[in-house]
Write a structure and sequence with these properties.
single chain; 440 residues; mainly alpha; 3 strands; coiled coil; Nucleolar_cplx-assoc_3; Noc3_N
């Protein structure tokens, strides 16, 4: 059968009209779905008409593969299939199925039409366990660059799902930053706070290697075989030991112990991928993604390793120059979030905020004023500052509030004056008397 697939036989007749071809495509699809073992070759008729009837052919092939693809992945290098804990050799039908499926994936990812994106999204939704997922993921990511709605919806669904492996396969090619601007905001749908790696507060990977080493040391302490013992074993004893290890490995898999360890490592990889993408966006000055990255760093601050905090801060500050006012406030809040639990001098960042609030160059929108209010509360209400500096900020905020209706900043002014016990009459506010009735 494989030779027949390589040399594609043409089943189309020159005198077939459009209706006849479509009916025959439908008939072939039905035959393959009913009995895929005997009728698999019938799909070649559909492949022969992909150029003439691309939409009908692709959707028909999609329907076929969604029905006949098995619930396990085929290991092409070892010619094996693994269904849960059972390993078995590939049979002829599975080899032919994989060959035809690879041809279909190539057709799907060849063109950038809506039907191609739809097929790729459906394959990722229903057959994420099967082969060639990485190729489909890369194709869907390219679709987000042109803001294809199907691709954007597909990626959003993946990040909301519980499929950790598919999330990781989606994140790896994203490290090349080859995706649309709306994709990175979907990271916020990943509930990393349920990850064991996050609960352990450890993000270097050594924790799991150390656990493995401790288990190995414990085995030696319990009198199990070490390398010296293994050299003394006979051939028959080595064979028995190999069988024992295989049985033990299957037992651990059935009890879910190995799966838990694999899940931990996968969670750790997902966290590291997210952080890497954030830092690459800042390093490569992708200004269209700054806002999403700053919001993500605020939420996922726990995945930023201690030795990367200072470098991340420098990257953020370097990106603020060519950003909008709202993005600048988001960047300031991101830095404050990273240093929230760390005792460190942030006076330079405070001075940057003061320069940013210059009334002659800044007209705040309501959304921007709310972000500014959050930053001001962190600097002056969470942390104690010099009264002189507080007065300088209050005067500048009063002018801003007199120019626009900014209730969020008005509230902050009142809170700051109450917290630092500032009296507007006696505390050097005479020249600002014109604003007293304007900023409230």
């Amino acid at each position: 059968m494989a030779e027949q697939l390589v040399h594609e036989n043409s089943y189309a007749l020159s005198d077939e009209n459009e209706d006849q071809v479509i009916k025959k495509i439908a008939l072939c699809s039905k035959q393959v779905i009913i009995d895929p073992k005997d009728n698999l070759l019938n799909v070649m008729y559909i492949f022969d008409h992909c150029h003439t009837f691309p939409e009908v052919s692709l959707l028909s092939l999609l329907r076929i593969f969604l029905d006949i693809v098995p619930l396990y992945k085929i290991k092409t290098l070892s010619n094996e299939v693994k269904d849960k804990t059972q390993l078995s050799k590939l049979n002829k039908w599975e080899q032919d199925l994989l060959m035809i499926y690879s041809k279909f994936v190539f057709l799907v990812t060849k063109d950038t039409n809506d039907v191609n994106y739809k097929c790729a999204a459906e394959l990722l939704k229903e057959l994420s366990h099967f082969n060639y997922v990485e190729k489909l993921v890369s194709f869907v990511l390219r679709g987000t660059i042109v803001e294809n709605a199907v691709c954007c919806e597909c990626i959003a669904r993946i990040f909301k799902s519980d499929d950790l492996e598919l999330k990781y396969k989606m994140l790896v090619p994203m490290c090349e930053l080859n995706f649309g601007r709306n994709v990175i905001s979907n990271f916020l749908d990943i509930d990393i706070f349920e990850f064991q790696a996050v609960k352990d507060k450890f993000f270097t990977g050594f924790i799991y290697e150390n656990e493995k080493k401790r288990r190995k040391d414990k085995k030696h302490a319990d009198g199990l075989l070490n390398k010296d013992d293994k050299k003394k074993m006979s051939k028959e004893e080595r064979k028995q030991e190999k069988i024992r290890k295989q049985v033990e490995s299957r037992r651990l898999e059935e009890e879910g112990i190995v799966d838990k360890e694999k899940q931990k490592k996968l969670e750790l990889k997902i966290c590291n991928c997210i952080l890497r993408i954030y830092l690459l966006v800042l390093e490569r000055r992708r200004s269209d993604l700054y806002a999403e990255v700053f919001v993500g760093l605020r939420k996922f601050k726990v995945i930023v390793k201690d030795n990367l905090v200072e470098g991340t801060k420098l990257l953020i500050m370097g990106c603020l120059a060519d950003s909008s006012a709202e993005t600048k406030f988001l960047g300031i809040l991101a830095v404050l979030a990273l240093y929230e639990d760390r005792i460190i001098d942030l006076n330079k960042l405070r001075d940057y905020l003061y320069d940013l609030l210059e009334p002659r160059t800044l007209r705040l929108k309501s959304s921007e004023s709310k972000l500014a209010a959050k930053a001001l509360k962190h600097f002056f209400l969470t942390n104690k500052q010099s009264v002189t500096i507080v007065k300088m900020f209050i005067k500048r905020l009063m002018v801003l509030c007199s120019l626009d209706y900014l209730p969020a900043l008005s509230v902050v002014i009142g809170e700051m004056m109450e917290y630092y016990d500032i009296d507007m009459v006696i505390d050097d506010f005479q020249e600002f008397s014109v604003y007293l009735k304007m900023f409230y």
